[in-house]
Amino acid sequence: MPGKAPPKSDKDAKGVSKGKKGGKDADEEMTVVVPPSKKQAQAADGDGDVHMGGEEDKVEEVDPAVQAVTDIKSNFALLDRAVALFDPRFSLRALRSISLIRKRLTPDIIAQAIADSFPATAASAKSAKILLAAIDRADTQLGKSSGSEMEVDGDAKPSTKNGSKKEAKDLIPEVDIFLGILIQVYLFDSKQYAKGARFSEQLTDRIQSLNRRTLDSLSAKVYFYFQLFCEHMEPLPPSPESPIVAVRPILLAALRTAVLRKDIDTQASVIVLLLRNYLLTSHINQADLLVSHTQFPENAVNNQVARFLYYLGRIRAIQLRYTEAHEHLTAATRKAPGSNCALGFSQTATKVLLVVELLMGDIPDRSTFRQATMEEALHPYFLLVQAVRVGDIENFETTIADHADTFHRDGTYSLILRLRQNVIKTGIRMMSLSYSRISLRDICIRLHLGSEESAEYIVAKAIRDGVIEATLDREKGFMKSKEVGDVYATREPGEAFHDRIRACLALHDESVKAMRFPMNQHRLELKNAQEAREREREMAKEIQEGDLDEDDLGGDFEGM
Q1: Strands 470-473 and 478-481
Q2: pLDDT score, position 248
Q3: What are the pLDDT digits (tens) for 161-205?
Q4: Is residue 288 part of a domain?
Q5: Looking at the predicted structure, is the pLDDT value of residue 16 above 90?
Q6: How far apart are CA 392 and CA 424, in angstroms?
Q7: Any domain includes 220
Q8: CA nearest neighbour of 206 among 189, 226, 186
Q9: Structural domain boundaries enclosing 442
């Protein structure tokens, strides 16, 4: 047929492919080889063909217990770096990893980590026995991982004249305390509170005897769990015979020692624990004295600052100092971490803040209750705000009765009981804004009061306190409201704007102070710069004297 190319032989085809390699025709005739998929390879194996994947497709299964021990031991390198560089950030990284390990902690895993880490020396054996006895694994042998090395050293000849052998290096105390914290976590999760309290007391004694600044962040965590164990032991607070009363002298002694040693982490943690301790037993005066006689460290961790502000806000709210309580609680909610790990703290602080705002006569913003993480937890408080906003006494008392258990559990029940007068004042203020003149009988009906005399007394008190701007006519039995001027003509908007600016500036200053850098890094850079300048001066001097020319420098030095 015309136009059809004659067939080519194999030699011609090979010649064309060799001769036109890289050309246009060769690109058009190129054959792409597609590797077989995983399913095709498996099907080929079924037919008897060679499997192309080899052993790479196999996934090695790791024992969870071995992986847990490996994760625990991986933190020891961070603690070593924290000691070598004197940088607490590495210790904090090791503490943050506990949340990932705690669900896999068992006595066998902890005992295996201790046996693999502690060498079989007399100094380490004493510390290891205390740790192993706390988890009922006192018969575990130490130095398993270094056993082969010790045997080799024992068979070898002495390297010194005195015949001394190479001894295994003892662990640093930071690793010892870190393993103790893991034991505390396990005992708390397994609800062995009495045993955990006894072990925590031994751990605190060891920390006090060591006196190492690299242990500051670890000791703060030890005292935290010590207090937590005592809170869950019988009898529970607020009983005066609760174990938290007996732990106060230990915490006060630790606070004195931390102040003398300038231990910021332990000092901040112990102050927060003491405030929590006093609030659990309703010793408000002692908590106030502690705040007035101690100074919370400025460089404390942000989490401790948020806790301190929360407890301080609760103390001020109980003392009827609502303005200061509102400032502290607002700062606590702002400093709370945004992650889900601190969701409970954010909810608790927000609940107290809402009650304080109601006691101040303000109505919280509705957007607070619409947050996905807050909606369910704040539902009883939303009903409470609705009753206060409208000024409905009957609805207010019904809400308290229905959710009394929730308010008791949140520790806000006593504060909410103070809101009754605020509900009445709010109702009167709403009516003064809605009506230019209203009779005392209508006020009595709307507020569900017992008599008109009670309504007259409440209205007179609201006028005297400045809640409303009105006059009371006792003869005719009505309340007449005064005309309200433009609020923007007053200084109130400017003061509110000034408060917001001050809060933003304070947050910026605290953020700058909280920034951390490697210690003495500026000195190292300064030293390197001085050495570089001295080398340049020496080289320039040698060039001027003729002892050194540019060829000796390799051409990289440019004359000064």
Answers
A1: antiparallel
A2: 93
A3: 344 443 456 678 899 999 999 999 999 999 999 999 999 999 999
A4: no
A5: no
A6: 8
A7: yes
A8: 226
A9: 435-512
- The count of domains in the chain is 3
Report the distance separating Cα 448 and Cα 393, nearest Å: 7
Separation of alpha carbons 447 and 449, rounded Å: 6
Three-state SS sequence of 398-429? HHHHHCHHHHHHHCCHHHHHCHHHHHHHHHHH
Provide the residue type at 80 as one letter.
Answer: D
pLDDT above 50 (res 153): no
The CB density around residue 266, as the number of other CB atoms within 10 Å, is 25
Backbone angles phi, psi at 439, to 5 degrees: -80, 155
CA 250, CA 244: separation in Å to the nearest integer? 10
**Is 133 domain-assigned?**
yes
User: What's the CATH number where 448 sits?
Assistant: 1.10.10.10
Q: Residue 44: is its pLDDT beyond 70? A: no
**Between the CA of residue 520 and those of 48, 297, 530, what are the distances in Å?**
68, 22, 16
Average pLDDT, the chain: 79
Say which amino acid occupies 535. Answer: R
The token pair at 173 is: 């105390």
* Domain stop point among 218, 240, 262: 240
User: Within a domain: residue 190?
Assistant: yes
Q: Is the dihedral of CA 451, 457, 461, 463 positive or negative?
A: positive
378: exposed, middle or buried (Cβ count in 10 Å: 0-12, 13-18, 19+): buried
CA distance 482 to 328: 36
**Tokens read off for 398:** 């019904």
